[in-house]
């Protein structure tokens, strides 16, 4: 492809408006995530969405706006700010209603159909890139020299639903203490942290490529790995590097050596004991 054409495409992607299509894709995936996370009741019991609609709506809204709520809490800004946009609230509520209460469950089934799911996930990843970039820009204005804070807020804005999940589960009366994003960070959280770092390096002029190319590269990165996870089952490309890092720097190599030494000593003791028994038996 001609470099100028590629740059024009990247510039167009950078200027895309998130409302309504990209935001609707985000809202739909969040509402579906809440629905899929609800434990299945016993046969004949009322469906959760029919019995507890308020709890279900509030849980869905927390995931839809979770990144902004958590980021505002850390930045000392009002937590309610992400909910002040009545247009976004109405749109998210309409999506929530259609996902859970559409006739014959048609909206949920269509959204789960693979071709439509790929499109929705692709739109969502474009919106994620937009969130991360603007979070980095906003935080740099408040804390220009706090690089850790900048990357942290960018990560939370882009992957806030993962960190909000435990709280929204409490609203639904569902609690899994051993499952949270800090104990088991998902690939999405790791990828968003990398993207926030890339945008930070760009703002610090360590990356000198044109901004549209950097932004478009992050979009392609998110979309590619999301679609790979759906189509090919690739869930965490960072895992091999993490395992190698932990083995070298987090004590894994020394633990393996200690186990090997302990196993050798145990084997030698067993051999000595066996030989002693045989000698006594021969005598």
UniProtKB/TrEMBL annotation:
The chain crosses the membrane at residues 54-76, 88-108, 147-164, 213-232. Keywords: Ion channel, Ion transport, Membrane, Potassium, Potassium channel, Potassium transport, Transmembrane, Transmembrane helix, Transport. It is found in: Endomembrane system. One of its GO terms (cellular component) is membrane. It is a multi-pass membrane protein. It comes from the Eukaryota. Pfam families: TRIC. GO terms for molecular function: identical protein binding; potassium channel activity. Belongs to the TMEM38 family. This is TMEM38. It comes from Mytilus edulis (Blue mussel). The lineage of its organism: Eukaryota, Metazoa, Spiralia, Lophotrochozoa, Mollusca.
């Amino acid at each position: 492809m001609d470099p100028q054409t590629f740059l024009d495409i990247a510039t167009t992607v950078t200027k895309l408006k998130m409302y309504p299509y990209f935001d609707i894709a985000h809202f739909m995936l969040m509402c579906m995530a809440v629905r899929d996370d609800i434990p299945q009741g016993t046969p004949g019991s009322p469906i959760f969405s029919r019995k507890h609609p308020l709890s279900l709506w509030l849980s869905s809204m927390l995931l839809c706006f979770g990144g902004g709520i958590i980021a505002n809490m850390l930045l000392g800004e009002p937590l309610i700010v992400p909910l002040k946009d009545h247009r976004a609230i109405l749109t998210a509520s309409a999506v929530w209603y259609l996902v859970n209460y559409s006739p014959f469950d048609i909206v949920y089934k269509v959204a789960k159909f693979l071709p439509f799911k790929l499109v929705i996930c692709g739109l969502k990843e474009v919106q994620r890139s937009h969130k991360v970039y603007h979070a980095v820009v906003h935080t740099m204005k408040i804390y220009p020299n706090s690089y850790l804070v900048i990357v942290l807020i960018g990560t939370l804005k882009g992957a806030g639903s993962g960190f909000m999940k435990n709280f929204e589960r409490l609203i639904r009366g569902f609690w899994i203490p051993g499952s949270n994003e800090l104990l088991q960070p998902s690939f999405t959280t790791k990828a968003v942290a990398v993207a926030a770092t890339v945008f930070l390096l760009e703002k610090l002029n360590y990356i000198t490529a044109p901004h549209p190319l950097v932004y478009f590269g992050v979009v392609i990165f998110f979309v590619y790995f999301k679609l790979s996870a759906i189509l090919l089952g690739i869930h965490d490309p960072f895992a091999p590097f993490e395992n190698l890092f932990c083995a070298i720097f987090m004590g894994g190599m020394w633990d393996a050596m200690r186990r090997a030494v302990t196993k050798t000593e145990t084997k030698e003791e067993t051999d000595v004991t066996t030989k002693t028994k045989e000698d006594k038996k021969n005598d």
